Amino acid sequence: MTRTKVSTVVLDAHDAHQLADFYVRLLGYEVRAEEPGWVLTGPPGGSGDGVSLAFETEPEYVRPVWPTRKPGDQQMMLHLDIEVDDLEGETARAVAAGATLADYQPQDDVRVLLDPSGHPFCLWTETGQTGQ
Predict the structure, then answer these.
(1) Which residues form the VOC domain (predicted)?
(2) Residues 112, 49 share a domain
(3) b vs e for 15-48, b when ≥16 Cβ sit within 10 Å of the residue's Cβ?
(4) Domain identity same for 36 and 57
(5) What is the pLDDT of residues 26-52, one digit of tens each?
(6) What strands, in cross-sheet order, belong to the sheet with 38-42?
(7) Which residues pair with 14 in a beta bridge?
(8) Based on the structure, what is the number of domains in the chain?
(9) Which residues, including other chains, have CB under 8 Å from residue 6's CB and lie 6 or more apart?
(10) Last residue of a domain, which of 61, 92, 111?
C-alpha cells in the first residue's frame, strides 16, 4: 500500500497573508513559504508537532455563518480544534490577536471563536470535548 497522509489544511480568505498572520500569532507558527495570494505556515523549526496550515486568497470568498441560522447561509465547511492548557487565558489571547468570541457557545468547557475571516475554531482543554 502506498503512503498517504493529510499534510496541510487550506483556508480561503479575502486576504491570505492577513489570515496567515493571525494564525502565526495565535499558534506560534512560522511562515514556511509564500507567494502572492498564498501562504504556508507550520510549527516552528519544521517540527512534526501540529498540522501545517495554508491560506489562499479567494476574491469571491464569503464568510461562513456559524451556527447556520437559515437555509442558504454560507455554512462552515470545517473548523479547527485547538487544545489549550488555560481555556480562559487562551480565549483572551485569541481575542487580543483578532478573533471574535462566537455568540453561541454550546459547551462550558469549549470556546468557539471566529478568526478574522469568519472561520470558526474551538479552543478546548483535555477535559473538553471536540467536534462541535
Answers:
(1) 5-130
(2) no
(3) bbeebbbbbbebbebeebeeeeeebbbbbeeeee
(4) yes
(5) 999 999 999 999 999 999 987 667 789
(6) 8-13, 52-57, 38-42, 30-35
(7) none
(8) 2
(9) 51
(10) 61
Residues 115 and 66 in one domain: yes
Residue 17 carries which DSSP code?
Answer: H
Angle at 74 (CA atoms; ends 66, 55), nearest 5 degrees: 85
If asked whether residues 42 and 79 sit together in one domain, one would say no
Strands (E), the chain: 8-13, 30-35, 38-42, 52-57, 80-83, 100-101, 110-114, 120-124
C-alpha cell at 83: 487544545
User: What is the pTM (predicted TM-score) of this model?
Assistant: 0.85
The side-by-side arrangement of strands in the sheet containing 110-114 is 80-83, 120-124, 110-114, 100-101
